[in-house]
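dude i think i finally got it to work??
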Amino acid sequence: GEGTDAVGTLRPAVANRLGLDPATVVAVGGGDAAVGGIGIGAVNDGDAYLSLGTSAQFFVTTDAYRPAPETLLHSFAHALPGRWFQMAAMLNGASVLAWAARLMNEPDLDALLARVAANTSGPSEVLVLPYLAGERTPHNDPNARGVIFGADPATDTATVVRAVLEGVAYTFADALDCLRAAGTTVGEAALIGGGARSALWMQILSDVLGLPVHRYRGGELGPAFGAARLARLAVGGEPVAAVATKPPIRDRAEPDAARHAAYAAGHARFRRLYRALAPEFAALEAEGGTA
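look at this
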């Protein structure tokens, strides 16, 4: 069934254990990415969001099923009738910033990011491959690992942390390239997840991608809110457009043309560095497997 379908009611034993009415309707629901999209109104063709949680996703709603496995994109049915989505799934998101902060003994992330914002307008003098947990889109490489490249004696904490923010943004640029190769057009994107707390990261993403990026008020409610919307649709008979609305926009970042050009060069270096090191990642794994 569709995510908005009512498929029954709670079993009496379950209702009793939860303290709910046994007449409570159960809806089909959906996966976290799709339901997160419903929570922020990403329900029409071209609606896009960037999720910066522990991992990262670039999600775009489509009006047709357009699989593109050769690009390492996921293509799924949305949790709404007549809607699908394409999603690039990256394994390293805001967790990389948390790792860098721990490594540098910086417990106050907000203060750290304020120092980074004051330090320079980017790009960083160093390059970070943020693949601490390997990478899915676009590499399908479980052996990839994190790299800090280009450090010199003047490299400081702010320089490295900016490079971390940029490195994760470059993975979104890889994802955007995959989406475009699959024939998907993205005009702008919302930013959700824990990393959306940072206005600096939002601006870096906008500059790297060359797209407007915005944050919603209440966008942190996430998939749970989308699940509640599906439940409402299952029992209320309302039109999707009346329920799965977009929240008010809190703020927006517009791409700067000069920074976008500089980041395009940085993204090219980022991709060359991964290609150069991919055999070494594989060799490292092979050596570890024989130890």
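The chain is about 45% helix and 20% strand.
im so relieved honestly
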